[in-house]
Amino acid sequence: MSVLSSVAANAIVWPLFAVMLIVSCTIAYFKSSGSSFISANGTQKGVPLALNFIATSFGCGMLVAYPQMANVAGLHGLLVYSLTSALPMMLFAYFGPLIRKRCPEGFLLTEWVYQRFGTVAGVYLSICTVLNLFLYMVSEVSSVNLAYEALTGKSGLAVVIVQCVVTTIYTTLGGFHISFITDTIQTGIVLVLLVAGTIAVATNLKIDHQAVLDSGLLEAKPLGWKLLYILTVAIFTNDFFMSGFWLRTFAARSDKDLFIGCAIATFVLLCVLTLVGMTGMLAVWAGYVPIASSESVPFFDLLAHQSAGIVGLVLAITIVISTCALDTLQSALVSTIASSVFRNKLSLLYVRSIVLIVMVPVVIVGLIAQDILNIYLIVDLLSSSVIPVMMFGLHRKSHSYLTAWEVVGGGLGGILSVFIFGSIYYHSAHEGGRLLLLLNGLYLDDWGVFGALVAAPVGSIISAFLIFVIRSILYHFWPLSLLAPISPEQNNTKGTISEDYHSDETKDSTLIFPPI
């Protein structure tokens, strides 16, 4: 096993951070502007947009989560995970034009929520989005720490702290524009990593054919079928929370460019995620890690057995990928806090200060966290409670029955439903509370996680319906404006989405999908 020495690791990591900081700050100085600091609406064509969608999905967490899935759930689970991660890109090709027409000056989903449901629902989604970004930054910090430890055998504390400082400095100077540039670089570097890793593994790895048969990783498993539902609901709803995706959706020059970008990103993501995940099985077949090992990092454990030169290259590329992913999350956090939480009424200086403060608990929690998939599942559970009811607001007639009461109450009802389900299923309120944080993990041999991902969306829809009935009855007897349906005029919009799409102005637009 070629673990890098302290001298070699330091010679790679610190000059790399210095170069990235200097280059990024230089680009930020010459390229950034006030108008592009938190958004870049209508500026990107299809292929550059695809590269940015791909890069937004990449990060060091990808190198940890997908191999771990293959290590536990085999090829069946890996293919399900890859498909359910790649296909949601097409959601933005469908819903993106609808939201863009509704909020042409916006650049996040929360802007539409503010217009459609009002301030309370907008703040509610903004808080959920900030929490989502926080947990994704935690997963990225945790992943780079695990990667550094696997490749060097030493603590990654210093690397994590310096990485956060570097990304904070250049995103503070360059804003969202610098994130677009680093995303393009990140995509190219991922491809380099895949080529180098593939060549190294293909030329040096020795696999026992009998070990492949004995592992059972190529067989379909019950867990794989569970994951087909769990990950579909989890990832499809969670992508709506991803500010990075919405920033790029609004950055598309046209609906056609958006469709091209999403289609290319879907195909590339499917291929790359599957290839990366395969290392989880290869590491088992080569005898480097045991099956279903929760403590191993199969991707890095596999490459750590290659030559020192390959290990050094993998370390350098991992640092770059993780840094680019972290700056994407930071720029999305800045945009969300500035636009959605404070409605552009707070100076960017204070917004940057808030992000800097947020990075402190990100580092602390990231160094403690070990299970990356569990972090993802927590935000997935939140999104599956919030998003289903909210997206009903896109329907042309939803103004008559769907308000902030149903959206906020439905989301909270979905979370409460998970607790109720867990308490009944495990015969313990304590275990019901643990299920809210999925502390037992994804791979426990029961139906707890599956039931939670059923209870969350179903419970939110039922809760929203009950709130609608109660609100309608109360409004019938006490017609208070607080209980009344919100009309398009009250929200200061120009009519329903259906009307927008059938107006003369949009008849010649390059819509790929029909309106709802």
UniProtKB/TrEMBL annotation:
TM region positions: 12-30, 50-69, 75-96, 117-137, 157-176, 188-207, 227-247, 259-288, 308-329, 349-369, 375-395, 407-427, 447-470
Q: Which domain of life is it from?
A: Eukaryota
PANTHER family for this protein? AGR155CP, SODIUM/PROLINE SYMPORTER-RELATED
Which keywords belong to this entry? Membrane, Transmembrane, Transmembrane helix, Transport
Q: What is its main location?
A: membrane
Topological category with respect to the lipid bilayer: Multi-pass membrane protein
Q: Name one GO molecular function term.
A: spermidine transmembrane transporter activity
A cellular-component GO term for this protein = plasma membrane
Q: Which family does it belong to?
A: Belongs to the sodium:solute symporter (SSF) (TC 2.A.21) family.
Answer whether the UniProt record assigns the keyword Acyltransferase to this protein: no
Protein name as annotated:
HGL100Cp
Localization, UniProt: Membrane
Q: Which InterPro entries match?
A: Na/Glc_symporter_sf (IPR038377), Na/solute_symporter (IPR001734), Sodium:Solute_Symporter (IPR050277)
Which species? Eremothecium sinecaudum
Q: Does the keyword section mention Transmembrane?
A: yes
Under Gene3D superfamilies, the record lists: Sodium/glucose cotransporter
